[in-house]
């Protein structure tokens, strides 16, 4: 199977389905994957297959590379609409994540003040005060919540270590609306399917309790490490999207 391992610490710009023209910031090594989840749908592949040998980029390396790229884009007359922390795993795992967010906001303000700073996260590190506080500073604090069903999470998201759904939901509530919930809906030939009422009903109630500024739902777009996975049908995603909107929360669906 093909997988995507991103350059580090800066890559792109790329066209994001959900965020538009995005300059990527990868706080993980360029030669492998570091993540607190091991999702069976991850475009970067399974953790075990991509153990890195290189270290994490330093705070200084990230700032230097980002400023160099923004200067180049400024000279080319093509500025990004968003600076997105993503890449080869979970960005909030970086020990200097909070400081890097501060550096990035400063560079954004200097070079492209109209651009948004976004973080794509699996919500496993939001119990750390410094991570929570840093995420409160970004424009798009995008946190994963694929389901509220722990068995499904163990089968699909596969946390590396203990994972408490209820505690995670309470921490998402603690953002007091400054959060975007991102959910992957999928099916498989082995019976996995979080588009059924068994999963959607409690998920929707939880989303209503979190009261995020927005919800982003999506489905598989690229090849996955688990070949049994299938896209959720467009009409099914549209129905879930419409139910979120009916609850008074903005929602987009990406196919």
Fold blueprint:
Layout: E1 10-16, E2 20-26, H1 59-76, E3 82-86, H2 97-111, E4 116-121, H3 129-135, E5 140-144, H4 150-156, H5 165-173, E6 180-184, E7 186-188, H6 197-210, E8 214-218, E9 229-231, H7 234-246, E10 251-254
Parallel strand pairs: 2-3, 3-4, 4-5, 5-6, 6-8, 8-10
Antiparallel strand pairs: 1-2, 7-9
Helix pairs in contact: 1-2, 2-3
Question: Your description of this structure?
Answer:
The protein has 255 residues and is α/β, with parallel strands linked by helices. Helix content is 33%, strand content 20%. The protein has an 8-stranded mixed sheet. Strands 7-9 form a two-stranded antiparallel sheet. It is globular.
Could you give the count of β-strands?
Answer: 10
Main β sheet profile: 8 strands, mixed
Instruction: Determine the strand fraction and express it as a percent band.
Output: 15-25%
Low-pLDDT regions: none
Strand order, main sheet: write it out: 1-2-3-4-5-6-8-10
Mean residue pLDDT: 96
The oligomeric state is single chain
CA-to-CA gap between the ends?
21 Å
Rg result? 18 Å
Total of helices: 7
The rough form would be described as globular
* Helix content, binned percent: 25-40%
Structural class: alpha/beta
Q: H/E order of the elements?
A: EEHEHEHEHHEEHEEHE
What brief labels describe this structure?
20% strand, 10 strands, eight-stranded mixed β-sheet, two-stranded antiparallel ribbon, globular, 33% helix, 255 residues, alpha/beta
């Amino acid at each position: 199977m093909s997988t995507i391992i991103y350059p580090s610490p800066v890559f792109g710009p790329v066209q994001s389905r959900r965020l538009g023209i995005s300059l990527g910031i990868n706080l993980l090594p360029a030669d492998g994957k570091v993540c607190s989840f091991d999702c069976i749908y991850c475009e970067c592949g399974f953790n075990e297959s991509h153990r890195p040998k290189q270290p994490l980029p330093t705070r200084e390396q990230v700032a230097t590379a980002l400023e160099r790229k923004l200067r180049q884009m400024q000279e080319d007359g093509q500025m990004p609409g968003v600076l997105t922390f993503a890449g080869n795993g979970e960005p909030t795992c970086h020990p200097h994540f909070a400081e890097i967010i501060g550096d990035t906001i400063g560079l954004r303000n200097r070079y492209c003040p109209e651009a948004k700073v976004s973080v794509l996260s699996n919500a496993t590190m939001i119990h750390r005060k410094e991570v929570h506080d840093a995420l409160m500073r970004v424009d798009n604090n995008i946190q994963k919540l694929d389901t509220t069903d722990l068995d499904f999470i163990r089968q699909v998201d596969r946390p590396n270590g203990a994972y408490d759904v209820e505690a995670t939901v309470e921490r998402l509530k603690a953002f007091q609306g400054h959060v975007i919930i991102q959910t992957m809906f999928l099916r498989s030939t082995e019976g996995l399917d979080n588009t059924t009422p068994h999963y959607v009903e409690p998920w929707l109630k939880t989303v209503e309790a979190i009261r995020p500024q927005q919800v982003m739902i999506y489905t598989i777009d690229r090849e996955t490490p688990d070949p049994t996975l299938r896209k959720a049908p467009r009409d099914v995603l549209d129905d879930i999207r419409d139910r979120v909107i009916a609850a008074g929360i903005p929602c987009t669906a990406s196919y």
